[in-house]
């Protein structure tokens, strides 16, 4: 399958539905892996001794790698002259390296023990946690290596009139990948009585990531990039700050889209980072710090039940995303990206309020289902709006810089919100509980701000 730029006309061939499905398959694998990392990194690091603040600091891996890795890789991919294309080397390389780290992460304690025995030294109790933290940083960095060039493929190979629907197909793939990843362990347990260990889930994610990316890289044929020749003495040197300034001054609407993303991703990470821990500790009543003498078998059984329910809710969240992603693309084509996106963000803010006050499984599932509508829009429409202002040849750089306004706000969630939760506790006879639900109230406020910011954007007519 090929969709190269036409040399004579500079136009791009429209993608068929089947081509769009092949195109988004790699993102299915990427999100499959990312879902495992988000849903299970809390329980894994908590088991190694991490409190909310330490967990938040470890989770800085995502935003920092997003702010550093994506702009660098995006700019490199713009200028890559590999015979395999501009973007594909980064897509496949990121997937393979991330898959290795996905295998190692849940085995961090065993890896620490292995090195301790091999060198005859007694390692500190936190050695396993330190290795887990390193693996999270590697996973997040490699996901960003693949993600930035992947987004840049859309303006590379797909006509502008199909950008909204192409981003909706990516949203479709993200929803489906997350559903399959989150639902597989509880479904196997409920209907087939197969208990899937956390290490096995991460191996499954690694295989899905690399396998799906190989298929997409084989199916999407890029045109080899040949840099323009410049007269001697006319070469320009661009620093990162010059590139950032150029990006922000392209159009006044760029700043509005970046503001939109800033508020949006504070809200998004308040859910993705803390939801599993909220379900286990606040909904299922498992104390974060149990009193001495607790029955560990009962404690771990309830904790596992809470984790499985959290996975079911995350599967529902992403199932709704999967179901509404294409309709959102169609509606945005008819009514405009900003209007549909604003409505979706307001619905997500309402869902956060439902979650914050929920005391039953039913209301949590209702809240997560409603939140899935906003999630589908977040994964597609801001990128469709941005693509209207991208200059040809700068797609990778723009997507990398744009990711700063996605990753940067997450630092606040990993530090300020984590600190706030760490200092908000309730002590009972069973033990100490953190107020994880406070993250949802913060998220509702900033998502409402994002919805208002969306309405201020002036869209181009295509």
Task: Provide an overview of this structure.
With 462 residues, the protein is mostly helical. The chain has a single domain, classed as MFS general substrate transporter like domains (Growth Hormone, Chain: A, Up-down Bundle), CATH 1.20.1250. Helix content is 73%, strand content 2%. The chain has helices at residues 17-47, 52-58, 61-79, 88-104, 108-119, 127-157, 163-192, 198-219, 240-248, 252-272, 275-283, 296-335, 337-357, 361-378, 381-387, 395-402, 404-422, 438-455, and strands at residues 289-290, 425-427, 431-434. It has a 3-stranded antiparallel sheet with strand order 1-3-2, with no helix packed on it. Helix 3 (61-79) runs antiparallel to helix 17 (404-422) and helix 4 runs antiparallel to helix 8. The longest helix is centred in the last third of the chain and has 40 residues, at 296-335. It is globular and about 70 Å long.
Short structural description:
The chain has 18 helices and 3 strands. The chain is mainly alpha-helical and 462 residues long.
Record keyword descriptors for this entry.
462 residues; mainly alpha; 3-stranded antiparallel β-sheet; disordered N terminus
Mean pLDDT: 85
Number of helices: 18
Overall structural domain count: 1
CATH architecture call: Up-down Bundle
- Radius of gyration (CA) equals 22 Å
DSSP summary, beta strand count: 3
The CATH homologous superfamily name equals MFS general substrate transporter like domains
Give the class-level CATH name. Mainly Alpha
SS-based class: mainly alpha
Name the strands of the widest sheet in spatial order. Answer: 1-3-2
Q: Could you spell the SSE succession in H and E letters?
A: HHHHHHHHHHHEHHHHHHEEH
Distance between the termini: 27 Å
How would a textbook summarize the main sheet? 3 strands, antiparallel
What fold name goes in the CATH topology slot?
Answer: Growth Hormone, Chain: A
Strand content: under 5%
